[in-house]
Amino acid sequence: MKQLNEIFDKIFFDKTDFLIYNDWSNIVGQQLYKVTEILRINKFNMVVGVKDNVWISQLIDLRYKLLKKINQRLKHRRLTNISFVIKKDINKEEKQFNLRLKKNNKVEEIHLTKDDKKISDKYSENIEDPKLRENFKKLIEYSLKRRKYE
């Protein structure tokens, strides 16, 4: 059976993004988690959607504390900046990672091919726990969608 790290290395370009997304609620705390959403991470910069200007002003004051917390969790890469933008439709209870691609001023959902789904099945087939297997498949599929989006 393959080690989980081997599988991650093959699937993700950079595990850093996953670590940050996955640990966001612990990094910012539950109160800020409810009003923020990571929109993207590019190399050394992160863009965070925030519910309103009041929260943005609070987060600007916390920017360097957040960067320090994030960078303590990372092994290789370091983030140097966090930008905050208004994103009013943040609803953590209903939130799902539905990546969308903008083409010709139309927003289209990114769909996986049959080959992509085979990759997802292949890497998760040896996981015995059904809930863990399903979550791992979702994680792989999310990563594949992100690759197509970028």
CATH topology of the largest domain: GMP Synthetase, Chain A, domain 3
Give average pLDDT, whole number: 78
Number of helices: 6
Shape: elongated
Which radius of gyration do the C-alpha atoms yield?
Answer: 17 Å
Q: What fraction, in percent, of the residue positions are helical?
A: 40-55%
- When the domains are counted, the total is 2
CATH architecture of the largest domain: 2-Layer Sandwich
Structural class: alpha+beta
Report on the biggest sheet: 3 strands, mixed
Terminal CA distance: 31 Å
Could you walk me through the main structural features you see in this protein, from its secondary elements to its overall organization?
- This protein is an alpha+beta fold.
- The chain folds into 2 domains: 12-95, GMP Synthetase, Chain A, domain 3, CATH 3.30.300.180; 96-150, no CATH class.
- Helices cover 52% and strands 18% of the residues.
- The chain has 6 helices and 5 strands, in the order H-H-H-E-E-H-E-E-E-H-H.
- The chain has helices spanning 4-11, 15-28, 30-33, 53-73, 114-124, 130-149, and strands at 36-42, 45-50, 81-86, 100-103, 106-109.
- The strands form 2 sheets. A 3-stranded mixed sheet has the order 1-2-3, covered by helices on one side.
- It is elongated, with a radius of gyration of 17 Å.
- The two termini are 31 Å apart.
- Mean pLDDT is 78; it is low at 93-99.
